[in-house]
Amino acid sequence: MFRPLVQEAKKPTDWLGPLGAYATGALVSSTAFGALLGAVGAVLFPWPRSTMTMIVVAVLGIALAMCDFGVAGARTPTLHRQTYPVWWRTFGRTRALFLWGFDLGLGFTTIRVASLYWIVALIVVALASPLAGAAILGAYGAALVLNLTIGTWVLERRDRSMASTVCILGLDSPLARSLATILLVWSLALLVFAL
Amino acid sequence: MPLASAISTVDHYEGYEGSEMMTATAVLTLSAGALAVLSGLAQVGSL
Asked: Is residue A4 pLDDT above 50, yes or no?
């Protein structure tokens, strides 16, 4: 007997379990990866932080923003990969959402439309503190959870005649330009502050 | 240079470096947190 793989939640609270699994995966991987990057930074750059650190981060931020804008044919550094949809069938709903959350929480394993994440990872290495790294990338994981809960809810109510995934794909290009602009403005502000 | 002046100069220098380091660290940490949240909220379409 054939049945649809994805079924509408029968009770309003049915989504809490899968969302909790997604949140757990995203928070565990983002926090652990932040701590790891901070520890790597502490080994690679044991000297105290200074304004020179800020200048280096700002210059690399400007370079990454230029990549996002496609200056001189440059592209945003990214892996061209998405999470595996097959996990839903292989592992079931809750485990799949945990794995998707874990995958996305790592940040670097899936496609990135802009370089904002890379500059955050660079700052975590530059700060060279596992605790600060865990807190910063943990905030990234928490934002992913917020993204899934609020974002889907808002998009589905924006236009019921259009699937939310189609709406999301339509946002990619303006979103990438906005994020690149934010990265450029932030990097320039950091450079001015450091100088 | 008298010893007291030398110690005072060293104290001043170390104080300046410490303050500069704390400011740099605070600015980087706070802005990284803000950018991380923004990046997470904008990471659409990869799921």
From this structure: no
Residue among A54, A114, A147 minimizing CB distance to B24: A54
| Token pair recorded at residue A116 | 């904002």
Using CA atoms, how far residue A68 sits from A61, A72, A132, in Å, is 10, 11, 27
Is it the case that residue A67 has pLDDT exceeding 50? yes
Reference A39, options A131, A138, A174; nearest CA is A131
pLDDT at B7: 46
Q: Which of A49, A83, A127 shows the shortest C-beta gap to B46?
A: A83
The angle at the Cα of A17, spanning A13 to A18, to the nearest 5 degrees, equals 110
B30 interface with A at CB cutoff 8 Å: no
This complex has an ipTM of 0.83
User: If you count them, how many residues does chain B have?
Assistant: 47
What number of other Cβ atoms are within 10 A of residue A188's Cβ? 14
Distance from CA of B16 to the nearest CA of A (A): 11
Q: Long-range contacts made by residues B7-11, C-beta under 8 angstroms, separation at least 24?
A: none
The predicted model scores a pTM of: 0.81
CA dihedral A184→A171→A9→A149, nearest 10 degrees, is: 20
Residue from B30, B37, B9 nearest A127 by CA: B30
